[in-house]
Structures are given as C-alpha cells and as structure tokens.
Amino acid sequence: MKIGLSTGGGDAPGLNAVIRAAVVSAVRRGWECIGIRNGYDGILFPERFEEGGLLPLPRSRVRGITHLGGTILGTTNRGNPLRYPTPQPDGSVKEVDHTVELADKIRAAGMDALVAIGGDGSLEIACALVRQGIRVVGVPKTIDNDLDKTVITFGFDTAVSFATECIDRLHTTAESHRRVMVVEVMGRYAGWIALNAGLSGSVDAILIPEIPYDLEKVADKVRRRDKTGANFSIVVVAEGAAPREGGVSVVSHEAGRLERLGGAGERVAQGLQELTGKETRTVVLGHLLRGGTPTSFDRLIALRFGAAAIRALEEGKDGVMVALDPPTVRYVPLEDATRRMKKVPLDCDSILTCRDLGICLGD
Ligand code: F6P
To answer: Per residue in 187-242, pLDDT tens?
Structure first.
C-alpha cells in the first residue's frame, strides 16, 4: 500500500504527532507513505515547489517530531480545490472545482489511499474525493473544536491551556490598574476556546458566537464588581462573537477562502470603556493559540488518531473519520462529520456552570 498524507486548513498543535503515528504504523505494516505539501497544492501545482510537491515519508523523516507544533508537510487555508479562485479572461475571478483533476493526480501518483488531516474545510474536500473514488480516512483537527461527531479535536487542549495561562497573567495587571482587560481568542463559529479558557481562568464575562451579546449586560457586570470593591474585570471574547444587533467583525474577504475575522475584542473594549468610563485594554491571542508544543493530552489523541487511521485502512474502511469517543477511538462516516458544526450547546454543563458562578455571557 502507498498512503498519501495531507494536512489542510489552519495548523494545530498535534499535526506532527498524527503524521508520525500514521507513518510509523504504516511502515510497520510494510506500507509506504508520501506527504503532500501545503494541503493539496503539492499534488495540484508541483511546479510551485523547488523540491517537488510530494515529500517521501520514510521512518527516519518522522523521528523526533511528536512534540513539534506546526506541520512538516506545510498547510494552507486558501485555494480550496473545490472552489479554486481562477482568474478569467475578463479580469474577474471565478471559483472553479478541481476535484476531478485532484483525484486523477492522486491516482497517477500511485496512492492507494489518503489520510486527510484537517478541519471542516479539509474534510469537505475529503468527502468530495471519496465521491471521486479515492479511498480516504479523515483525522479531525482544529483548535476551535467545532468538528461534529468527535468529542474533541486535537489542538484544542493546547489552545485552551495557553489561553488560560495568559488570562492568569492578566489578573494581576488588571487588578493593579483597576482596568477592564478584554482577551480575544480564536473561535470562528463556536466558542469552545473562550468558554473553557474563560471558565478555567475565572473571568467575569465570556462572549461566544452562540450567544449574541448585549454589551449593556457586560457593562453592568463590570459596574457591579466595582461596587463590591473588585475594581477590575476580565472579559474573554471569541473572534466570532457578535452583538445582538450587528454581525461578526470582519477584517477582509478574499475569493476562495473564508472571511478573515478580527476586531471583536477591540469592539467590545471600546464599547465597555464608553459604557463604564473605565480604562480598558485589549489583548488578541490569535495565532499564539495555534503555535507551540502540544499538551500531553493533544499528543496522545493525535498519536491515537494517526495510528487509528492506519488501522482503519487495514480493516478496509473508506470514507470515515477517526473520532474520539472515550475511552475509545471509533470511526464515523465522513459525510456525517461534516454535515454541521459542533457549536456550544446552550444547555451544556459548562454554560450552566458559568451562570452558577455569576460569569456574564452577555445575555
Ligand atoms: O480554523 C481555525 C482558525 O484558527 C479560526 O479560529 C480562525 O478564524 C482562522 O483559523 C484564522 O486563520 P488564518 O490563519 O487564516 O488567520
């Protein structure tokens, strides 16, 4: 068997651990592995790569990478092959579907199966490849934890741990200056990072995409804290959080990729300063949440996912995604996993805990 490996979308701590586990497990079965650089660009546009778009992955190439952030294959979240932005003779840009070409090139490269490691966008591409007759096993990745049908994705725990540490550090400076500190974290469609880091960092307000916020409610929380002598407040805002009347904060939009979000934290900070008269500062954690060494939890699930993907291929499975369903890793149809985003349920225990602890959720 010759197995292709691809990492797509935003990087997440644990990608290299998945690659290592998949390669070692495959090599132990006498199979060969080959990496595709930068999502699928390496196979669609090999001429763009000086050393070739494909990276042979012998056992020696994955030695000592479990703990490394990023991905040795490179990744991309632009140029989705399902909607590739293609300049037209009239100067306009049209989104063109390259799935058939991609599937043909995967076959021509001699790959018998593909391990596609990615988030919702990458797994949507994986589904399209399955429909073109390519054998694919998906591995769920995203720091946002918004993929359905798996209890958790790798990368999420590292992001939450780092965000919590940052919030811990902000407590003392916020208290010393009697300020409102607004911390913006990633979380495009789902507020899992904001919720978990905000709760474990014992903040005063958490704003997530699932609950459109009323800033007056947050300002009220800040004022009530002031009255009790706690003269500072910490507010965590997911980048995809939006006010009741208004949309998400968008920085830019480019053909073939998702809107770039940004500014949600600053918008909240400015509003709170106006409403409370308190000095306010914003910290955007952004891509810091995607970098660094994966936590042991993320390494473990990444290694388990990588090994499980190869077991799936050995067992003849196709069109499935490996999924954490404690205490085990099971396989779910790729189509089911990509049907909808996993948002924070408003009746979940963490939301109830916030309410019990008096953490304002902006509603
Ligand atoms: O999908 C993961 C994610 O971290 C989102 O939370 C965020 O909106 C996006 O990636 C940012 O991507 P980029 O690397 O293009 O800024």
So the answer is: 999 999 999 999 999 999 999 999 999 999 999 999 999 999 999 999 999 999 99
- In order of 47, 98, 105, 116, 138, the CA distances from 52 in angstroms are 7, 20, 14, 19, 24
Are the C-beta atoms of 311 and 328 separated by less than 8 Å? no
Which ligand 1 atom lies nearest to the CA of residue 186?
6
pTM: 0.96
For residue 226, indicate whether it is catalytic.
Answer: no
Ligand 1 pocket test target in 78, 80, 162, 186 with most atoms within 8 Å of CB: 186
- In three-state secondary structure terms, 55 is strand
**pLDDT tens figures, 73-128:** 999 998 899 998 888 999 888 889 999 999 999 999 999 999 999 999 999 999 99
> Which pLDDT score is estimated for 64?
97
What confidence score (pLDDT) does residue 256 get? 72
Q: Give 109 Cα–ligand 1 centroid separation in angstroms.
A: 30
**Residue ranges of the alpha helices (H) in 132-280?**
156-177, 192-200, 215-227, 264-276
Mean pLDDT score of the chain: 96
Nearest alpha carbon, ligand 1 atom 9: 10
Q: Pocket around ligand 1: residues whose beta carbon is below 6 Å from it?
A: 10, 77, 119, 142-144, 186-188, 239, 261, 290
The pair of three-digit structure tokens given for residue 157, joined into one six-digit string: 């725990």
Three-state DSSP class for residue 272: helix
User: In 3D, which of 153, 201, 210, 238 has the Cα closest to residue 348?
Assistant: 210
Nearest C-alpha neighbor of 189 from the set 86, 259, 91: 259
Query: Which stretches of 74-185 are assigned E, i.e. beta strand?
Result: 84-87, 93-96, 113-118, 136-140, 180-185
Distance CA 34, CA 5 (A): 6
| Cα 286 to ligand 1 centre (Å) | 8
